[in-house]
Amino acid sequence: MTLLLPALTARAAEPTVYPISNMFDPLSKPALMIHESSIVVSLICLVIFLLVTGMIAYVVVKFPSKGASDDRQEPPQIYGSSQIELAWTVIPILITVVLILVTTRTIGEIQDKKMPENAVRVTIIGHQWWWEIHYMKPDGKGGWITDFVTANELHIPLSPKDKPRPTALTLESADVIHSYWVPQLNGKTDVIPNHQNHMWFEPWATGTFLGNCAEYCGTQHANMLIRVMVQKPDEFEKWLADQRAAPRTPLDAIALQGRQVFFGNSCVSCHKIAGTVAVGLFGPDLTHLMARTAIGSGVAPIGQASLRDWVRNPAHLKPGVLMPDMQLSEAQVDQVVAYLMTLK
Q1: For the chain, domain boundaries
Q2: Rounded distance between C-alpha atoms, residue 187 and residue 180, angstroms
Q3: b/e per residue, 214-235, with b = 16+ CB within 10 A?
């Protein structure tokens, strides 16, 4: 029993993962607002459904078939009934107006919300098929500039209802139309080339929230996954400090050889590692690669085996991925993986 205690303690300390994105279990203010309006819409639709099915059932029971002769007889026709015409015109219009008012109010409250000064500012850029994430800081002139860059996994602080701290997202695309959707935190928002869209989260529960690109964007659309890690304020501030720090220098001989292989190939043309000559912009920033939980935008858990598989042939894990097979030898693959494992 004593031997099991460390394992149980570690498991208890792990953040909650919400593997099924349940839009009917909102855990953020904008998601709750959408949920409440959807209940009103659903109730209206339910009433309509019950009325229509009830009338159909009544007619079927009240007026059964009286035989073959009845089947060939045309029922009485009603023409020019102002009451009936008004009923089937005015009632649907009133229902539509109510639905428009409910949804417009919710959309307006979400889109027009003013972000407080303590809001976390993040710019997310959609690529085929991964997410580039810029954490922003004030530029001293009333604008915002990039503080640091990461990829695929968005870390945000808990926003208690008594002390809210929302996260404001600016959404952009580098290629085609994508859509950012984490159902328990907010609704879908399209990510469009040459246009900025905005959304925000205000979560009151910690854990890992899973989402997905909700707009077909190419071969690996289904594997353009989203992870949002909601952390307690102190944990979030520690994560920010770690991300701003320079990457560690590898001391292991194999890792040093891997560093030479990495910088000796075209890896540096696509990827960036802060503090080095690798300043590529086409692929994910690798400065703190091993601080993430997955690779390939969530296609596989991060680890030595998955990294080796990815470096050896990215298309094996993610067919159609734009990263090429660098045709490295087995020894070179091991060396590069050893170097990547030091990027924490």
Answers
A1: 14-61+82-245, 253-340
A2: 8
A3: bbebeebbebbbbbbbbbeeeb
pLDDT tens sequence across 85-112: 888 889 899 999 999 999 999 999 998 8
Whether 14-61+82-245 shares its CATH topology with 253-340 is answered yes
Angle 253-264/330-340 helices, nearest 10 degrees?
A: 100
- 253-340 in CATH: which number? 2.60.40.420
Contact by Cβ (8 Å): 290, 340 = yes
Specify the length of the chain in residues: 344
Mean pLDDT of the chain: 87
- Diameter of the chain by CA atoms? 95
pLDDT at 3 over 70: no
Q: Return the residue matching tokens 């086409």.
A: 282
Q: What are 338's two structure tokens? A: 């050893």
The Cα 211–Cα 29 span in angstroms is 17
* CB burial string 63-93: b at 16+ within 10 A, e below: eeeeeeeeeeeeeeeeeeeeeeeeeeeeeee
- The token pair at 290 is 């091993």
CATH 2.60.40.420 fits 14-61+82-245, yes or no: yes
Answer yes or no: are the C-beta atoms of 215 and 179 closer than 8 Å.
yes
Q: How many CA atoms lie within 13 A of 201 on its CB side?
A: 31
Token pair listed for 180: 């950012």
Supply 129's token pair.
């098929």
- Assess contact for 299 and 225: CB atoms under 8 A: yes
Distance (Å, rounded) from C-alpha 257 to C-alpha 274? 19
